[in-house]
Amino acid sequence: MDVLPEIRRLHFVEGVTISDLAKQFNLSRPTIRKHLNTVEEPVYPTRQHQPHLKLGAYIEQLTNWLETDAVLPGKKRKRTAQRLYECLQVEGYVGGYSAVQRFVKAWKQARSSTPTIKQAFVPLLFPAGETCQFDWSHEIAVVGGMEQTVKVGHFRLSHSRQMFVVAYPCETQEMVFDAHNQAFAFFGGVPKRMVYDNLKTVVDAIFVGKERRFNRRFLTLANHYLFEPVACTPESGWEKGQVENQVGNISEWLFTPTPKFSDFAELNAWLAQRCRELALRPHPDQRTRTTADLFAEEQPLLMPIKAVFDGYVETMRRVTSLCLINIHRNRYSVPAQWANQVVSVRVTAGKIRMVANGQVIAEHARRFGRDHLICDPWHYLPVLEKKPGALRHGAPFVTWDLPVPIKVIRDRILKQDKGDRAFVALLQMARDLGDAGLDTLEVACDLTLQTGVISAAIVLNEMRRLTEEAKPKALDQSAVSLPTLTIEPMADCSRYDALRSERHVH
Description:
Blueprint: H1 4-12, H2 18-25, H3 29-36, H4 59-70, H5 81-91, H6 97-111, E1 131-143, E2 146-157, E3 163-168, H7 173-187, E4 193-196, E5 203-206, E6 212-214, H8 216-225, E7 228-231, H9 241-254, E8 260-261, H10 264-278, H11 291-298, E9 313-318, E10 324-327, E11 330-333, E12 342-347, E13 351-356, E14 359-365, E15 373-374, H12 381-386, H13 390-393, H14 395-398, H15 404-414, H16 419-432, H17 437-451, H18 456-467, H19 494-501
Parallel strand pairs: 1-4, 1-8, 4-7, 11-15
Antiparallel strand pairs: 1-2, 2-3, 5-6, 9-12, 10-11, 12-13, 13-14
Helix pairs in contact: 2-3, 5-6, 15-17, 16-17, 16-18, 17-18
């Protein structure tokens, strides 16, 4: 349509022939004649059906995926057009993304005609090293062979757009602390401001405007790293729109389809690696540079990490007569001497520590779920001294994963007369040897098995022999020159007689 006025002007005003116009505009003469007779804007027929040349063989597969995703609960579990395009590429599709996008859009419009209302926002600009945004999301993953909802902590540096995500079984306060430790270690520094929703683990009370009362323990974290905590206005997610957008993208990029991992450590290692890979994509604002390029410039401007925050949540608990403390529906053992007493419990993302008199008296790896019994058999050794029969059916000892030689010796000794007390004596000696005690007991049991005579006394003798200090070697007098006596002392008994003859007046 743009060339029509020019063609008509050249022909009717300047007298250019049809042949010359065809050569000048690289068009056929019939087309030139048609344009000369055109006065109104031409109307072209609209194509009612879009042909799918390369997509045609995959339409059935794509439709099945869309129908499968449509019945999934929640928007986060549904694949976007971009994700479906990537899945089709795995299946062998070599066409473009636009064809997939048009098909997905038409399919969704055919199912729903509800209009969407869009909002307008103001573009924001953040200085390097100043602001980081935080948020939680709930994703579906298979961890340890079981599908479950994992809580994912999201961090995003507002200047470089560098992201970091880490997953946990729950989003309690100790998980918030650990997530910050992990994120700051990943970034290699601390931003000056952290922006949050009004999380219960962060904000205790919301007042008028921006005034908040932050949680005291959370303020300890902020004071440790020296960042300024900022809480958004309620129901105003656009105040931290970058991380809100990241939540949706991560759900699409990393959790669709559902990933599978053996444990949370493997999941988080994979998430950290994917964050590094995604940083190689073009920056949203500076398309000629990657997110990693801007992060390399921003990282030196972050505040340095002088020490890692000990992110525990502390409570006071009473130890039961079974030497156990109930923590989050699971029971953990404490040394027997603290039974029926109150101790302090410090809960972190991965550990449970019991503290009394300023000293850590017990430490366990944290277990998630319910009704787990986590016992350290050494905690119950003082009880065995008085009740050795508990060795046979006591839960800490039945589930104790001992080395094979110790198990064989234990089973043989328990069949002997007073075998309970005899094996308890072996455990007592192993405890007295400290960290190397169990290894020493294992070697002693192995040596005893080689003799063919099984007895607690023989095992004890082997343990003493293994742990006794080396005696100094005897001095070889033949190889050493000894001093010789030149003047021999003379015996004088008269001095003794003189003393007897003296009289002492009292």
